[in-house]
Design goal:
Helix 7 packs antiparallel against helix 12 (263-284). Helices cover 57% and strands 8% of the residues. The chain has 17 helices and seven strands. The two termini are 13 Å apart. With 409 residues, it is of the alpha/beta class. Strand 4 (80-86), helix 5 and strand 5 (100-103) form a beta-alpha-beta unit. The chain folds into two domains: 3-123 and 387-407, Rossmann fold; 138-363, Calcium-transporting ATPase, transmembrane domain.
Length: 409
């Protein structure tokens, strides 16, 4: 996702051969000819648009300091985010004007002062490592924002509807436990295993909010439908032989421990909300289907522990002070089966929202686009780039600067 261009003061033939050995492309331009004065400042002596030549070139040879500055300025004008590496005094103007100036190890004080980043290790592989790591961090941030938005919308919506429609009063203490367990699980996202994107990321927060709102409404619907089935039908009585279900259906919701406000049903709803709410993390962290990106052991372990605690609370907790009573294993089984059924289509909901927000991708959508993280091995690629110097092609140039860029926006 990052295009690399070589800038060197050596001759054109040397630059081409070095780039060929490094597999960087051989579309090289001789800078004195590119910037030769002429009657038209925007054209080369051959009559070509100078900006287009700079855009399409893989590298530039015979470069003078003022040419480096002009090349960086041109690429910025074309709408690219530009990074520049260098080590000498003559690189300082280009390093200063680039969006990200990187001074390599052993750079002069002038180059260091003009740069945004100073490398402490020799070589450029650390830049690749930094790009990969930053993209991993970005993916974790997106996962957290999407999860937080979805769970917040889900909790607020579901309990608001239940209060207005059924006079259901969820004990505040149970919501507090729900929040603690959720926070404990979400903290492990910081160490989650993620796949960096193949192209530079753009922080489009509004898309994450829309996606989170839709998923949150889906979560709310799962709970509301669950309460409606328990309150208005004999489904749980007929299929699971749950005697408490009759009490929920025929009880008086305005009374304590009766109807949908029975202490048992408080616990059942708590468990249903907890399971599906935390399971959303596996959907929010994946680019495609959740089972195609293996989570970190810590994240999976945190989810298992949190849901074991939630399940035992739902089954055994007899806490009169907060109006809950143990629901038993039958109700716990019902909550788990219900949430698993509602969890499976969540990826389709997520991907559908993303497709609707990016209609330009409709004609290109296929299974590979969602399965890509399964086959992409970024760490292996990074290791390949970190090969020892003796294993890499030998360069012929004596002084080479590297220009990296990607489209902005």
């Amino acid at each position: 996702g990052v295009e690399v261009k070589m800038i060197t003061g050596d001759q054109l033939a040397i630059g081409k051969e070095t780039a060929r050995q490094l597999d960087m492309g051989t579309r090289f331009v001789d800078s004195p000819d590119l910037f030769a004065p002429g009657p038209h400042p925007d054209l080369t002596p051959d009559g070509l648009q100078r900006d287009a030549v700079i855009r399409e070139a893989n590298g530039f040879a015979g470069v003078f300091p003022e040419h480096k500055y002009a090349i960086v300025q041109t690429l910025k004008k074309l709408g690219f985010t530009v990074g520049m590496t260098g080590d000498g005094v003559n690189d300082a103007p280009a390093l200063k004007v680039a969006h990200v100036g990187v001074a390599v190890a052993d750079a002069t004080d002038a180059a260091r002062g003009a740069s945004d980043i100073v490398l402490t290790e020799k070589g450029l592989s650390v830049i690749i490592d930094a790009i990969i790591e930053s993209r991993c961090i970005f993916q974790r941030m997106k996962s957290y924002v999407l999860y937080a938005c979805a769970t917040t919308v889900g909790i607020v919506t579901r309990f608001s509807v239940l209060v207005w429609a059924f006079r259901f009063n969820m004990p505040p203490f149970m919501i507090l436990i729900l929040a603690y367990l959720n926070d404990g699980t979400i903290m492990t996202v910081s160490t989650d295993r993620v796949s960096p994107s193949r192209t530079p990321d753009v922080w489009r927060l509004w898309k994450l909010f829309i996606e989170g709102i839709v998923i949150g409404l889906y979560l709310a619907a799962s709970t509301v439908v669950f309460v409606v089935v328990a309150r208005e039908t004999n489904f749980f009585v007929d299929h699971f032989n749950l005697r408490d279900a009759e009490e929920i259906r025929f009880g008086d919701s305005t009374q304590n421990d009766s109807g949908v406000n029975s202490f048992v049903f408080h616990n059942v709803v708590y468990l249903q909300v907890s399971i599906l709410g935390q399971a959303v993390i596996f959907v929010s962290r994946s680019q495609g289907f959740f089972f195609m990106q293996r989570p970190s052991i810590l994240l999976a372990l945190a989810f298992v522990i949190a849901q074991l605690v939630a399940t035992f609370i739902g089954v055994y907790a007899n806490w009169g002070f907060t109006k809950v009573r143990g629901a038993g294993w039958n109700w716990a089984g019902v909550a788990w089966v219900w949430d698993i059924i509602w969890f499976l289509p969540l990826d389709l909901v997520k991907l559908s929202v993303r497709l609707m927000m990016s209609p330009s991708t409709w004609g290109h959508f296929n299974y590979k686009s969602v399965a890509q993280p399964l086959f992409h091995k970024p760490h292996k690629e990074a290791e390949e780039r970190r090969r020892p110097t003796s294993a890499r092609p030998m360069g012929l140039a004596t002084s080479i600067e590297v220009l990296t860029m990607h489209p902005s926006g």
